[in-house]
Design goal:
This protein is an alpha/beta fold. The chain binds uridine-diphosphate-N-acetylglucosamine and calcium ion.
Length: 450
């Protein structure tokens, strides 16, 4: 039985940001979200998140995750003070409490599992995660005997120059027997360099404490400033790209590509340079994305190609070619084997299979059938200054170059629209519509006497 508590009340002064530190994002998730996800596989009996600085913002950001309990720490007087806030919530609780810093976002679930196992096998009162770092600057130092039993913990700011030489650091991840921790918590003191109540002081007061070194020290990187955030991002990107490369995805010039952890790719996807895949994106087998593209919260079918284009919140069917320089957004849905070409914008529009919009067009709030050909420069005028209106275009219809369809409007199947038309009324199936003034030619006009 384990209850999890996540420390997320601090401001994060060193981030120099209006945003609470734990809401900065890394690989498509916020820092605190990542920490929560790392504990989910072992189904903790309760998940307590300690919030304080801009607590409403933090709570709102976690609304989509079920079964989180928030505990307020109205004043941020230190990590020990934060855990003191749990005393009323966990009265009488007999099990273990796993405490995680909300700003340590790269931890693997396996590492936490290992920590819990050692804690339980040795029947420790407390087990902490540690690492030996080449550069331990800023971290609390942990002093152990030869058996890994913790003797002393000293925060960086409280260390003597000699103590700073110690390379073993506190990762900010602890497993406590709650019945023991709850006894010492009320007696913490703040007689230290930062005038804070340190959780680390509780560690050395509970009795038998073991330190467990993490295998991969990158996992315990704490985020206190933007430089550490950027480093964490590099580490995470490397992890994500290695995973996809080994899963059969080609990344050309991986260093220039970024992929959120939330993205799904099938084998034989090819990602070209300068391409960024974000959010809940799925790309199916055989698709070639990039160079120079941004795909966010979108689903792309098999054998799709995308060049120098931006696709957000949209769906692209099998075999469709997008770009160069196209923009799909706001729930655009493009069918199979379509072509969406140069300088075309699609917003909240649904296009049937084998429909082409090849050049210089804007389709907004439009439903088009199959095998439609949208001529160069076709625009749907969907906005009357107050409201948006829909355009409907039937199957096999062809719009001439530079036509404007003024919505709301229904154009039937097999319709031909003459180039340069401004169409304001519905058009029946099989019709030709010409909605422009007739050409007037005045022979010899330039030679007439003035
Ligand atoms: C802490 C540890 C340090 C460890 C390091 C690892 C203490 C005293 N020190 O230092 O030994 O090496 O983490 O990253 O614990 N928080 C609250 N309420 C508060 C203060 C902080 O919820 O009153 C939260 C913060 O939002 C953050 C976490 O606790 O998520 C850690 O706080 P931070 O101030 O970053 O501690 P460090 O100085 O990094
Ligand atoms: Ca920290």
């Amino acid at each position: 039985m384990v209850v999890v508590a996540i420390l997320a009340a601090g401001k994060g002064t060193r981030m120099k940001s209006h945003l609470p530190k734990v809401l900065h994002s890394l690989g498509g998730k916020t820092l605190v979200e990542r920490v929560i996800h790392s504990v989910e596989p072992f189904s903790p009996t309760r998940k307590l998140v300690i919030v304080g600085y801009k607590s409403e913002e933090v709570k709102n950001s976690l609304e989509h995750i079920p079964e989180i309990e928030f505990v307020e720490q109205t004043e941020q007087l230190g990590t020990g003070h934060a855990i003191q806030q749990l005393l009323p919530n966990l009265r009488g609780y007999e099990g273990d409490l796993l405490i995680l810093n909300g700003d340590v976002p790269l931890l693997r679930t396996e590492t936490l599992n290992n920590l819990l196992k050692i804690h339980q096998d040795h029947q420790n009162f407390c087990t902490i995660l540690t690492a030996k770092l080449a550069n331990p600057q800023g971290y609390g130092r942990v002093f152990c005997d030869n058996e890994g039993v913790v003797q002393q913990m000293v925060e960086h700011k409280d260390c003597t120059p000699q103590q700073r030489e110690n390379k073993r650091v506190n990762a900010g991840i602890y497993c406590f027997r709650w019945s023991e921790l709850s006894k010492v918590l009320p007696h913490l003191k703040n007689d230290n360099a930062q005038k804070e109540y340190y959780l680390t002081d509780a560690v050395t007061q509970v009795g038998k404490v073991m330190a467990v070194d993490v295998e991969d020290e990158q996992e315990i990187l704490g985020i206190n400033d933007r430089l550490q955030l950027a480093n964490a991002n590099d580490i995470l990107q490397k992890r994500i790209k290695e995973k996809w490369l080994l899963a059969g995805v080609t990344l050309n010039d991986p260093a220039s590509i970024t992929i959120d952890e939330t993205v799904e790719l099938e084998p034989d996807v090819i990602i070209e340079p300068q391409t960024h895949l974000r959010g809940k994106t799925l790309i199916k087998s055989g698709s070639r994305i990039g160079p120079g593209s941004l795909i966010e919260n979108s689903q792309l079918g098999e054998n799709v190609t995308v060049q120098y284009s931006v696709i957000t919140d949209s769906f692209v069917g099998t075999g469709t070619r997008i770009g160069p320089y196209a923009h799909l957004r706001g729930h655009a849905e493009v069918g199979e084997n379509c072509r969406i070409g140069n300088f075309v914008e699609l917003k909240n529009s649904q296009l049937g299979d084998r429909t082409n919009v090849a050049h210089l067009s804007y389709l907004g709030d439009t439903t088009a059938g199959t095998q439609v050909n949208v001529g160069a420069g076709t625009i749907t005028a969907n906005y009357d200054g107050v409201r948006k209106h829909r355009t409907r275009i039937g199957d096999r219809t062809k719009t001439g170059s530079n036509s404007v369809l003024v919505a709301p409007i229904n154009i039937g199947n097999d319709v031909y629209i003459a180039a340069g038309s401004t169409v304001t009324e519905d058009v029946e199936n099989d019709a030709l519509v010409i909605a422009r003034s007739r050409q007037v030619v005045k022979p010899g006009w330039s030679k007439k006497p003035s």
